[in-house]
Amino acid sequence: MFELSGKRALVTGASAGIGLATAEVLRELGADVVVAARSEEALREAAATLSASYVVADLSDARQIDRLLAEVGPVDILISNAGGPPTGLPSAVTDEAWQRGFELTFMSSVRLARGVLPSMRSRGWGRIIAITSLTVNRPLLGLPVSNALRAGVTNYYRSLALEVARDGVTVNTVAPGYTATQRLAEVFKSPEDEARTLQEIPAARLGTSREVASAVAFLASNEAAYITGQELLVDGGWGI
Fold it and tell me: Which candidate, 112, 5, 128, 126, places its Cα nearest to that of 65?
């Protein structure tokens, strides 16, 4: 198994679901983990379970991201993760909803990466990983904001990877498929919806948060040093 002893990781959106599972796996591999989210009560409980430190921050607010990065200090591993934008039909998305989604989903990933890069480049080692979605490659009707903005994150991170590869910093994304988290309650409107989706997944089941977290941990490892600018699908074959 990979080892991350001596590495410091910041995991955002880490009070539940894939973010929390990722923090758990990184902690098990020896990393010093700091978790962040906007819900203080849930975040405090998660941090206590992990024996990790935490910082409360709303990633849709640039000033709070600046405060988060200042409090955390230099990190070796950034896991950029944020809650999914609201559901709805593409034609019904308001300008306000687009703007909220842009700040939370796209700009948070840009700002976090920009904030951690100087120290990573100076040390000649860094891992920047965004958790996106299977909708980057195969849009879903009810998730137009996620479809568009997570694709933007993916291509921004690919662009950034080209710039910083020679500095020892890798930049990748992990795109989970249908994973058994609370978010699915917003996607599946009925048991029939879930049953139809399971029939489309070659693995014939939902993924687990831990399975996604393990893929993230691999990309954060020394062993993945020659992998950058990539999107790793963790979807049970759904995107084939």
Answer: 112
